[in-house]
């Protein structure tokens, strides 16, 4: 079966199709537990998210998909790929959109790292200690950022407790991966002392350069084989939180630290050291005023720094971000049938990317950014119809250091969204969403003018860039009840002044002067109109219940620049299926994902990404021991040892994904 990959995929899909009609009929009468999406204003269950298509990873499913990075963890979700810049840095790409167009949150607040600036920058959040990870799009995304046209990813770790536990509860896990000798241990514990809720979490990961099935490069065998050089990753994190909890609500605070070191798998063999300290305050007051259900306020401060180092350890460039974010939300009781949330959000930051020795060129000068935004989201039912409307008004200021000689830029942004859901029969829904979203150019898009060691590019911004305006439309049809469920989405995004990086292959030295033997390739930030179209479909049976379960899925998208060619780094068309069985303490499953060849290239791209078939499998056994659940598990990723290269990765020509990886471990919940 392993030797015949195409037959394997066909057999799995045929098995799914052969399940009997009587089994489907029986499934219609059963209901699975609801999953609460915390990043929506009404804490709706996952099945209700037709106006903001959502996926929630939690429990066994999250642990089975867990990778060394957030992008790796989410890369096989519907419509989601990854930037795959080695094992240490991989950010989720949603429907072909990446960087600042995908907002990464932790407990509803911006991560405030610099991962949106470049693919070699790691996300400053840890999935190993998350209770759940949420992906959402649509009107609810306006609560968190005008430019989040790709969507929002929210990492929930409950670092600030909201409930009092009668006894300590938590989870601990240890795992080992064969492909890179990964050693990973994580811990999350919640407890209480009187009216004070307490939380502790931590993670330690150590991974060597990972094995690859063949050569580093498909065209140049001299670059090596067997292992991907400089693909190691080390990560450490710890978080502490406490809150005072009463019947009226809660108020609490937390602190979290990240300390990472990871290699960049390019010829330069550079590496990144990352340190981040984050403080958060979170409060909730129930029924603070007449006609209001709740008042929530949050404050977050992040002190972030990462250094890009040369192969010999010499620091090259320091990236720093010191940021303060605040938000306040008021949720009102139903008024004339409408329920909703409105609020205010502010962000203030100082960002720079400067030569570590203080004498070299400035990649990005010290720049202050200030923004203030007001947002509103309302929802109402009209019989079988549900309407959701959102709006966000935002003012953004980019102010570079006076010594740079660059001009300050100010942007006024307006974003709006309107969606409707028709429940034409119980358990079925037809929905449509239309939105307009505006985004201010990011700091590096405006003011970059220097070498970027880890990407080997000399980045040149344009301080005359205009704001992006995206007009989006989506139609969805889905079945949300019973064990047999399905959904299908069609979408189109038309973006005016789409900002993208392009290169003409010009080589330059560290000073930006043209040099055929130069270490860096010039990359310019440019604008043009763009259109992204795509489709997604998924069908599942008994996905989280006992007995047999199965799932089939497919997604495709394509982005084009008006009058030119395709957008760069576009995802491949994918389809696949999985079969699983759960009986008592045993859980097992097999998943097949096939990605087609990606030959729809931008004008400055030349590498056609080959197709691949990825097969993963898992087996676990849970036993009861001293009032705790202990789960022993084994996971095999890339069972066929395929040479997998993601079309969304800048390094796709010279950095394949890991080969066959056996992961074994033990997890306990108490």
Automatic annotation (TrEMBL):
Domain spans labelled TonB-dependent receptor plug: 52-152
InterPro entries in the cross-refs: Beta-barrel_TonB, Beta-barrel_TonB_sf, Plug_dom, Plug_dom_sf, TonB-dep_rcpt-like
Keyword Transport: yes
Domain of life: Bacteria
Boundaries of every TonB-dependent receptor-like beta-barrel domain copy: 297-639
Keyword hit for Membrane: yes
Pfam family, one: Plug
Subcellular location, record wording: Cell outer membrane
Bilayer topology term: Multi-pass membrane protein
Signal peptide: 1-25
UniProt keyword list: Cell outer membrane, Membrane, Receptor, Signal, TonB box, Transmembrane, Transmembrane beta strand, Transport
Entry similarity comment: Belongs to the TonB-dependent receptor family.
Name assigned to this protein: TonB-dependent receptor
Source organism of this protein record: Herminiimonas aquatilis
């Amino acid at each position: 079966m392993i030797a015949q990959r195409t037959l394997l995929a066909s057999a799995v899909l045929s098995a799914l199709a052969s399940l009997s009609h009587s089994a489907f009929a029986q499934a219609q009468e059963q209901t699975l537990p609801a999953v609460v999406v915390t990043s929506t204003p009404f804490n709706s269950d996952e099945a209700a998210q037709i106006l903001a298509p959502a996926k929630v990873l939690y429990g066994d499913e999250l642990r089975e998909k867990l990778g060394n990075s957030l992008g790796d963890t989410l890369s096989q979700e519907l419509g989601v790929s990854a930037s795959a810049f080695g094992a240490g840095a991989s950010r989720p790409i949603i429907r072909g959109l990446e960087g600042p167009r995908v907002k990464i949150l932790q407990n509803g607040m911006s991560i405030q790292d610099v991962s949106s600036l470049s693919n070699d920058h790691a996300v400053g959040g840890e999935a190993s200690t998350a209770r759940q990870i949420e992906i959402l799009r649509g009107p609810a995304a306006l609560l968190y950022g005008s430019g989040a046209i790709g969507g929002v990813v929210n990492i929930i770790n409950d670092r600030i407790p909201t409930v009092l536990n009668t006894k300590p509860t938590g989870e601990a896990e240890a795992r080992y991966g064969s492909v890179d000798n990964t050693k990973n241990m994580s811990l999350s514990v919640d407890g209480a002392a009187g009216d004070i809720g307490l939380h502790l979490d931590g993670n330690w990961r150590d991974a060597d350069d990972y094995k690859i099935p063949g050569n580093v490069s498909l065209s140049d065998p001299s670059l090596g084989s067997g292992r991907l050089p400089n693909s190691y990753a080390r990560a450490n994190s710890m978080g502490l939180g406490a809150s005072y909890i009463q019947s009226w609500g809660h108020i609490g605070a937390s602190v979290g630290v990240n300390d990472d070191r990871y290699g960049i798998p390019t010829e330069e063999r550079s590496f990144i050291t990352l340190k981040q300290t984050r403080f958060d305050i979170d409060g909730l007051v129930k029924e603070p005023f007449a006609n209001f259900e709740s008042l929530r306020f949050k404050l977050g401060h992040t002190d972030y720094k990462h250094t890009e180092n040369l192969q010999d350890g010499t620091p090259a460039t320091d990236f720093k971000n010191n940021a303060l974010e605040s938000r306040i939300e008021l949720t009102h009781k139903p008024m004339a049938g409408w329920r909703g949330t409105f609020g205010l959000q502010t962000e203030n930051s100082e960002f720079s990317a400067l030569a570590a020795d203080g004498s070299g060129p400035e990649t990005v000068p010290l720049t202050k950014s200030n923004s203030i935004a007001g947002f509103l989201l309302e929802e109402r039912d009209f019989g079988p119809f549900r309407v959701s409307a959102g709006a966000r008004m935002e003012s953004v200021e980019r102010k570079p250091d006076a010594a740079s000689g660059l001009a300050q830029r100010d942007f006024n942004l307006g974003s709006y969204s309107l969606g409707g859901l028709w429940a034409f029969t119980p358990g079925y829904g037809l929905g449509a969403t239309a939105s307009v979203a505006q985004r201010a150019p990011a700091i590096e898009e405006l003011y970059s003018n220097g070498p970027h060691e880890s990407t080997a590019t000399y980045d040149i911004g344009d301080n005359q860039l205009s704001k992006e305006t995206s007009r989006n439309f989506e139609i969805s049809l889905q079945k949300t009840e019973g064990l047999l469920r399905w959904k299908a989405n069609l979408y189109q995004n038309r973006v005016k002044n789409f900002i993208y990086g392009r290169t003409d292959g010009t080589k330059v030295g560290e000073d930006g002067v043209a040099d055929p033997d130069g270490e860096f390739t010039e990359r310019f930030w440019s604008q043009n109109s763009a259109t992204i179209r795509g489709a997604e479909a998924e069908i599942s049976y008994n996905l989280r219940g006992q007995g047999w379960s199965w799932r089939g899925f497919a997604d495709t998208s394509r982005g084009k620049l008006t009058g030119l060619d395709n957008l760069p780094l576009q995802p491949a068309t994918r389809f696949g299926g999985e079969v699983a069985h759960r009986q008592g303490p045993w859980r097992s499953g097999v998943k097949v994902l096939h990605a087609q060849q990606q030959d729809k290239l931008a004008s400055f791209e030349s590498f056609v990404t080959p197709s691949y078939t990825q097969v993963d499998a898992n087996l676990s056994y849970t036993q009861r021991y001293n009032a705790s659940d202990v789960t022993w598990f084994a996971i095999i990723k890339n069972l066929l040892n395929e040479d997998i290269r993601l079309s969304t990765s800048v390094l796709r020509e010279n950095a394949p994904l890991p080969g066959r990886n056996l992961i074994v471990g033990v997890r306990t919940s108490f």
